[in-house]
Design goal:
The chain has 388 residues and is an alpha/beta fold. It has two domains: 244 residues, Aspartate Aminotransferase, domain 2 (3-Layer(aba) Sandwich); 122 residues, Aspartate Aminotransferase, domain 1 (Alpha-Beta Complex). Helix content is 43%, strand content 15%. The protein has a seven-stranded mixed sheet, sandwiched between helices. β3, α4 and β4 form a beta-alpha-beta unit. The protein is globular and about 60 Å long. The protein starts with 8 loop residues before the first strand and ends with a helix. The structure holds pyridoxal-5'-phosphate. The site of pyridoxal-5'-phosphate has 12 residues, from α3. Pyridoxal-5'-phosphate binds next to α3. Keywords: Aminotransferase, Pyridoxal phosphate, Transferase. This is Tritium exchange subunit. Heterodimer of a large and a small subunit.
């Protein structure tokens, strides 16, 4: 294996680079998770998380990856055989639907081309036709990490409301929370699913459910078996600052520091930074003569960009060249996109020169892989960075 000097460029769309401050915060002794110091930490965390989710309601923290919080959202609110509406926006939406099916739900999937987000008109059609209100939940991945497409959650909410349909709205924000504008309460989301290792700049291992009053009411009659994921004991224990299980103490230290950083920069500035880096990335991709996978400019992701390689060029070979020569990891094409796209993560702990270095590595990697990427691509990105 080649020995590389300097810092590895981890430009996959999660796990993302963990800031030094967060790593230092994590490197502290464990404390008694039933003691007063811990209770105070929990209270501070639950307060500091609220504006990130855009909610005044309960937020449940799990020592689990994002997949665990997917399961929690489903098992707390639904009963065996319930009909749920899913959308084939990409790999993660597909996995979530398969999980729902596996849990004994009747998970219906509206097909998609992996280049678009959830179509609000399709939501309106299905729910409008469902006069008997058999659909109990609508599952949406806000930012589809496999495609770099961001669904328009407020428009989906409007479609549900216009159909006057009571289905719950469950939204996966694993790769958008803390990077893209998101408003759990204002957008009428019932359960928001999130994870620690993407926009929140932490290592993997924490995940979250933000819960609306309506979802909380649904949880009282839901009959899927929730057990470890059950919101009720967590919310009850959180009242006094504790958890019914052993919480991931050191990751919570890191979370406090990550939240401090997000609030110091200011969430609107954080969102604007991500949007600007995404714009600069798209400028480079186009000037290289390549295509962004996302086909609708209203749905461009601020946290990652999936790039299509030209026919005959294996995207995984490009990634391998970039890794070997420049010590940078790019995201692979997932599922049916394997070998056809690579993904540039530009989320989390990230600045203009991180992006410039990232795009320089991609440009050289493309050229070394036989793609006639126009070298003005990098300059096109720098123009965006300089002007803003
Ligand atoms: C990463 C990701 C997940 C899965 O989370 P894990 O932490 O890997 O379990 C789910 N949904 C989206 C949108 C993701 O990006």
């Amino acid at each position: 294996m080649t020995i590389h000097s300097g810092r590895h460029f981890l430009q996959i769309p999660g796990p993302t680079n963990v800031p030094e401050q967060v790593l230092r915060a994590i490197a502290a002794p464990a404390i008694d998770h039933r003691g007063p110091e811990f209770a105070a930490l929990t209270r501070r965390l639950l307060e500091a998380l609220k504006p990130v989710f855009g909610t005044g309601g309960p937020i449940v923290i799990y020592p689990a990856s994002g997949t665990g919080a997917w399961e929690a959202a489903l098992v707390n609110t639904l009963s065996p055989g319930d009909r749920v509406l899913c959308f084939e926006t990409g790999h993660f939406a597909t996995l979530w639907r398969e999980m729902a099916q596996g849990l004994g739900l009747d998970a219906e999937c509206l097909p998609g081309d992996w280049r678009h987000g959830v179509d609000p008109a399709a939501v309106a059609d299905v729910l409008g036709a469902d006069r008997a209100h058999t659909v109990k939940a609508v599952c949406v991945v806000h930012n589809e990490t496999s495609t770099g497409v961001t669904s328009r959650v407020p428009d989906i909410r409007r479609a549900i409301d216009e159909a006057a349909h009571p289905a719950l709205l469950l939204v996966d924000t694993v790769s958008s929370l803390g990077s893209l504008d998101y408003r759990h309460d204002e957008w009428g989301v019932d359960v928001t699913v999130a994870g620690s290792q993407k926009g929140l700049m932490l290592p993997p291992g924490l995940s979250f459910n933000a819960v609306s009053d309506k979802a909380l009411r649904a949880s009282r009659t839901a009959r899927l078996s929730a057990s470890y994921w059950d919101w009720a004991p967590v919310i009850a224990a959180n009242e006094s600052g504790f958890f019914p299980h052993t919480p991931a103490t050191n990751l919570l230290y890191g979370l406090e520091e990550a939240l401090r950083m997000l609030h110091a920069e200011g969430l609107p500035a954080v969102f604007a930074r991500h949007a600007r880096h995404a714009r600069a990335t798209r400028a480079a991709v186009r000037a290289w003569g390549l295509e962004v996978l996302c086909a609708d400019e209203r749905e461009y992701s601020g946290s990652l960009t999936a790039v299509r390689t030209p026919p005959g060029v294996d995207a995984d070979a490009v990634r391998q060249t970039v890794l070997e020569r420049f010590d940078m990891s790019l995201g692979a094409g997932l599922g049916r996109l394997a070998g056809r796209v690579f993904r540039i993560g530009h989320l989390g702990h990230f600045n203009d020169l991180t992006l410039a270095g990232t795009l320089a590595g991609v440009q050289m990697g493309l050229q070394l892989s036989g793609v006639a990427a126009d070298p003005r691509g990098l300059n096109a990105a720098l123009d965006v960075l300089r002007s803003a």
